[in-house]
Amino acid sequence: MDNFYNETRPVIENGKLVFISNGGSRAFIGIRQVRKTVKELEGKGNLRPSSLATLELYRAGIALWEANR
Hints:
Helix content: 40-55%
Oligomer: single chain
Mean pLDDT: 90
Strand content: 15-25%
Number of strands: 3
Number of domains: 1
Order of helices and strands: EEEHH
């Protein structure tokens, strides 16, 4: 069962890529690190559901970043 606080979304704040949860926590992960992590995860096989969720979240963050350039 999904929890309300498990929802995270990417946003651009002050020119930085930030991931915000519905609980209010912020993860300041740079675009370079996000791209590096996506590349690493795409190179692996048999990812766990949590890794797949992270991959999709980071892909959404990259798409948001590119749309705002």
